[in-house]
């Protein structure tokens, strides 16, 4: 049975950006970053209104095809609810199409906002496990979504579900406190779909073995041994194949690594993420970033998605 939400309730969700893969952990490792989108949802008597501020304003659809709206609808179905009408306000700081998990943040934020709505109707919120599953169904893999749900660093994996579909899971990883994060975001845009087609359908046993060893080592480096980050972030399965599509990012990645910064493509790129226990970036790296249109900053690890609920203010 589907229940109808009351009119005039609101929910707010705040959700972090994320970086996936981290080099060798293709579609498995993820890390939340301290850059956030905010989604505010209000139930109304009828209709749909979507408002977008910041990143994506004037570029994304303002109707039922908007990714946040689709996630809200999926979350309401899963919770056994419907809404007579909605106002959805998105205040975005996460850059779009840069490899920083903007789509995962939209989905996780929409689902978390549903938690804020249904609790006001007397129902239990969805668990983190349920949020990861639903968000993973949108993404097709749970690395960004799990990082956005749980915050911090995560290891995620996919199993075959009993219904024949995919079952998405994740476990948190405690990031070593000495590790500093340096995302570099270019003006260039890219999409996962465009760069994924550059990857081969099959890889050699040697390459697979190499990445398995580095992904395992990366968990050690992230949690206990930051001095191993350079070796642990080596990859042969996806970054070299994507380099030609984003030459400035590939060059910047190389410069950072030559400077002793464990740099990786953030997700499918074109953003680059540097990880290091040292303070700041070398002058050579900063100068290249500025000259080639990268916005370079230092961020802390992102927090788990959080949601609140209330009653809409009336004049």
From TrEMBL:
Its EC number is 2.7.1.39. Pfam families: GHMP_kinases_C, GHMP_kinases_N. It comes from the Bacteria. Signal peptide: none annotated. Residues 67-152 form the GHMP kinase N-terminal domain. ATP binds at residues 95-105. GO terms for molecular function: ATP binding; homoserine kinase activity. Coiled coil: none annotated. Gene3D superfamilies: 3.30.230.10, GHMP kinase, C-terminal domain. One of its GO terms (cellular component) is cytoplasm. It is found in: Cytoplasm. It catalyses: L-homoserine + ATP = O-phospho-L-homoserine + ADP + H(+). The keyword Ribosomal protein does not apply. Belongs to the GHMP kinase family. Homoserine kinase subfamily. Catalyzes the ATP-dependent phosphorylation of L-homoserine to L-homoserine phosphate. This is Homoserine kinase. The lineage of its organism: Bacteria, Bacillati, Actinomycetota, Actinomycetes, Mycobacteriales.
